[in-house]
Amino acid sequence: MSEIKEKDFRVLTSVTVRFAGDSGDGMQLTGSQFSDTTAFIGNDLNTLPDYPAEIRAPAGTIYGVSGFQLSFGSDDVNTPGDLPDVLVAMNPAALRKNLKELKRGGVLIVNSDAFDQKNLKLANYETNPLEDDSLSGYELHQVPISSLTANSLEGLPLSPKEVARCKNFFALGLMYWLYDRPLKNTEDWIKDKFRNKAEYVEANTKALQAGHKFGEMTEVFTTRYKVEAAKLPKGTYRNISGNEATALGFLTASVKSGIPLFLGSYPITPASEILQYLSSYKNFGVKTVQAEDEIAGITSAIGAAFAGNLALTTTSGPGLSLKAEAIGLAVMTELPIVIVNVQRGGPSTGLPTKTEQADLLQAIYGRNGEAPACVIAARTPRDCFYMAIEASRIALKYMTPVILLTDGYLGNGSEPWRIPHVDELPDISVKFRTDPERFYPYLRNDNLARPWAIPGTPGLEHRIGGLEKADVYGTVNYDPDNHDRMVKLRTEKVKRIANDIPDLEVDGEDHGDLLVLGWGSTYGSIKDAVIKARRSGLKLSQAHLRYLNPMPKNTGQVLKNFKTILIPEINLGQLAHLVRSEFLIPVEQLNLVRGLPLKVNDILEKINSLLGGGNGK
Amino acid sequence: MANSPEVVTQKYTAKDFTSDQDVRWCPGCGDYSILAQVQRTFPDLIQTNKEKIVWVSGIGCSSRFPYYMNTYGFHGIHGRAAIIATGVKVANPDLSVWVATGDGDLLSIGGNHFIHACRKNIDLKVLLFNNRIYGLTKGQYSPTSEKGKVTKTTPFGSVDYPFNPLSLALGSDATFVARSIDRNPKHMQEMIKRVGQHKGFALLEIFQNCNIFNDGAFELLTEKDTKDDHVLVLEHGKPMVFGKNQDKGIKLDGAHPIVVDISNGKYSKDDLWVHDEFSDAPVHAMILAHLDDRPDLPSPIGVFRQYSKETYDEGIRSQINRIIEKKGKGDLEKVLFGSNTWEVS
Ligand code: SF4
C-alpha cells in the first residue's frame, strides 16, 4: 500500500462543473446528487440539466450524450456558468461533445476504460485522444472508472450490467473528494431509493465510497478544492427546481385561498413533473386528471373552474398551441384558470428537452378574436413558487385566465431557496357569490370581475358559454354595440391588473446610458453580465419584467430614463417587439436561440459594444 | 340547507326547468321534443336541490340546449362537452352533470373525449342528438351519415363509412347504453329517467330529425305504417318481438340474429332471444347495436346494456379520503420544509 500523501487545498470562490456521459449512465442523477449535497453544505448554486430527447439513445453515440452542469460558489451564483472549469466525461462521445466548451487549462476527468475502439469510432475519433497530445491544454486525469468500480464491488451478487450501472456513483464519490463534500446525503438517498433492494444499497454505497477513497489514495490528484459556504440570508433552506417550486406554489395557493386545487394535464416534456408532483399531494385534496390530450387538460380545468375549484393546466409549447381555443373560452366565460407553459425549443416539436423563450407573443396574442389574458413569467427556479401563487391570486381576483411562463431551464434547473413560513405568504382567499338578490352573471365589481357563482348554490342558476354575452345579464347577445362594449370591458379588466402589481424595479441608477431589460429565465445571466460590466468600470442598470401583460405601470417611465435599452432574449426579439410598439422607443436586441440559457459573456460583449468600451469615467 | 328534513319540498314542475330564453330551433325540429321530454321528466327525477343540476354542451344545434334549461349550464366549444363536464363532475361529485351533444360534436371533433369518458366511467348523463347531419353549419355530412350521402360537401355522395355510436360506446366499456327516438315521447321519457337513475357514464342516443337538412332520416322508424316493422323495443327479460301485429321476432342463431315469423306456428315466443340488459359481456349488446346494419332487421330502441363499477369521480374522491386517512390532512408547512433542508444562521 502506498503512503497517503498530504494533498494541497486550494480555496475557490466559484466552480462550474459539467458531468457528461451516455443517457443511460445516470448523469442527471449524479448531477442532482452533487447539487443537493452542495446546497446542503451551504454553497449557492445554479444548475442546467441538458439531456437528449431520446430516453436511451444507443450507447456511445454523440447524440445520446446527457449532461448536467452546475455552478456553485461562496458568493451569489446566478447562472449555471458559461463554460465549465471541470468536465467529467464518462466516454469518448461525452468528451467529443463537451470538450470545446471546457475552459482552457480546465480539469478533465475521463473514464479511460470507455475509450475502446468501438466507442472511439462512435465518437468519430480516428486516434485515441488520451494517447495523442490533443488534450495537452487541459489538466487531464485518466481514471479507469469502470474497472475500479468493478473491483470495489467484487464478491457482490450482481450481474456485470448491474455493476456497470454503479460507475456514476464512483465518479460522484471522486468528485465529492475533490471538492471536499460529505458522502452522507447521497448515502441516505441511496438507502431510501433502494430500500427494497439491499444489494443495490450496498453496491452503490460501496462504489461511492470507493470513488472517494480513490481520490485520497491515488497520486493522480495532487490538489483538492474548497468552496466555502455562501453568505446567504438567515433561514431554513432547501434546494429546489423550478418545476417543483411551481407545484408547491399552486399547492400553497390552494391552501391560502381555501379553494381545492384541480389540475387537468397531459404529460409533455419538460412540464410533466408538475403533474407528477401535484399528483402526490392527494392529502391536500388535490385532484389531478391525466387527460386524454392537451385540449382535454384545459377544458376539464375550465369545467372545474366553473364548479368552483382553483383550476390549472400545465404544458409546454405545442400544448399551448392546442389550448389556444380553450383559453379563448375562459376569456369569454371569465373563469379563473391558470395555464402554465414550461417553454421549450420550437416551433412544432422543436427541441423538447431544451430551453427557449419564444412563446411570449403566443401567450399574449395567440388566440382568435380580442382575447386578453394576463401573462406573467418566473425569473429563477425559486421564483416559480411565488409566481404560481401570483398567477392564482390574479386569476381568482379578476376572474380571468392567467398564463404563467417558465421554461425548460427554470423547470429542470435548481437553486437554494430560503423557505418561507406559510403565515408569511399572502392571504388570497375569495368569496363565492351566494346571494340571489340582484345576481347577474356579468355584473362586475370595481375590478371589473364578474361574480363567481358555482353550481350547487340555490337560486343562482345561470348559463354561460363561448357565445358573446350581454353586458350585466350574461344572456346570449349579438348586438353590435354590446359586443364592442364587452370586447373593451374584457381588455380593460386585464389592463387594470396593473394597479395591483409591484412597480418595475431598477437595479442600479434609475437613469443613465444603458438599461438591460429582460424577462423570464435570462435574469441570472443578465445579472452576472451587469455585475461584471460594472466591475470593469461601466455604468449601467438592470430591470426584469415578471409581469408581461399587463406590464407594471411605471415601465414606460423607467425605460424613458435611459439612452439605450438592451433586451437580451432566447428568441428573435419578442419582448423587444412589445416594448417598441407599446412605448414607441428604439431598443437594442441580443438574440441567441440555441436551446440554452444565454451566456454571461455574450451579454457582456454586447454591453461592451453598446457602451463603446467605457462610460463610467 | 334545502336538504334539511323540516323543509317541505314542493314538487318541481316542468316550468321550474324552463329558462326565460326563447327557443330558437327551426320549427319542426326534433330537438323540441327532446327538450319537452327532459322538462317533463325532470320533476320525477329531481325532487329537491335543482341547483345541483348542470347541463354542459359543445357546439351545434343540440348544444343550445343548456340555455333553455333553468339550471346551471355551460355552453362549451366544439367537441369538448364531455370533457368540460368531466371537470365539473370531478370538481364537485355531488352535482348531477348532463351533457347535450350532437353527432358531429361527440363523434367527430369530440371523439377522443367521448371514448375516454366511457373508458373512465365518468358519471355523466349524455344525450346524443343524432340527426346524421351537420345542421348549424347548414348541411354537410356527419360521421353518422350513411355512406353515399349526398350533401353540400359530398355532391357525388360520401365515400366514408359511418360510426355506430352505440357500438363505439359499448366497445369503450360505457356502463349504460341506450337509444330512443324523438317521435316517441313516452319511450324517451322512460329512457331519460333510466339515464338519470344510472350511476356512471350513460349514453342515450336519440334519433332526431333535422327537418331542414336531413328530413326523413328516420322516417321508417317514425311513420305510422312503417315504424312497427322497423323498430324493435327492447325490454329487459322479454323476448324480442316486433311487427305491426307483433308477429315477428328475433332469434339468435349462434351470434347471428335472424327474423322469424311467430304467427304461423313454426316458432313461438319461447324460441326468441330474450333481452338481458345486465348481461356480463358486451357481446349481446354489440349484436343489438349492429342489428340494423342489415336492412331486413329492425332498429332496437331501449336499454342495450347497463352494469355498474366505480365511477372516475368516486375513484378520485375515495382515493383522496383514503390517503387523508392514512397520512393525515396535508400540512403545508411540513411539505414546504420537506426533508433535506439546512439552516443558515
Ligand atoms: S338545422 Fe336541423 S337540427 Fe338544427 S335546428 Fe334546424 S332542424 Fe333542428
What's the structural blueprint in terms of helices and strands?
The complex is a heterodimer of chains A (617) and B (345).
Chain A: E1 8-12, E2 14-22, H1 27-40, E3 44-50, E4 65-73, E5 86-89, H2 92-98, E6 107-111, H3 117-122, E7 139-143, H4 145-152, H5 160-164, H6 167-178, H7 184-193, H8 198-217, E8 223-227, E9 235-241, H9 242-257, E10 261-265, H10 272-279, E11 287-290, H11 294-306, E12 310-315, H12 317-333, E13 337-343, H13 360-365, E14 374-377, H14 383-398, E15 402-407, H15 408-412, E16 414-418, E17 463-465, H16 480-496, E18 506-507, E19 512-519, H17 523-535, E20 541-545, E21 547-549, H18 555-560, E22 562-569, H19 574-583, E23 588-591, H20 600-610
Parallel strand pairs in A: 1-8, 2-5, 5-6, 6-7, 10-11, 10-12, 12-13, 13-15, 14-15, 19-20, 19-22, 22-23
Antiparallel strand pairs in A: 2-4, 3-4, 9-16, 14-21, 18-20
Helix pairs in contact in A: 1-6, 4-8, 6-8, 7-8, 9-10, 9-14, 11-12, 17-20
Chain B: H1 31-45, E1 53-57, H2 65-68, E2 72-75, H3 81-91, E3 96-102, H4 103-109, H5 111-120, E4 124-130, H6 165-171, E5 176-181, H7 185-197, E6 202-207, H8 219-222, H9 224-230, E7 231-233, E8 241-242, E9 248-253, E10 256-261, H10 283-289, E11 299-306, H11 312-327, H12 332-337, E12 341-344
Parallel strand pairs in B: 1-2, 1-3, 3-4, 4-6, 5-6, 7-11
Antiparallel strand pairs in B: 5-11, 8-9, 9-10
Helix pairs in contact in B: 1-7, 3-11, 4-5
Bound molecules: iron/sulfur cluster.
Iron/sulfur cluster (SF4) is lined by residues 25-26, 29, 31, 61, 131, 135, 210-213 of chain B.
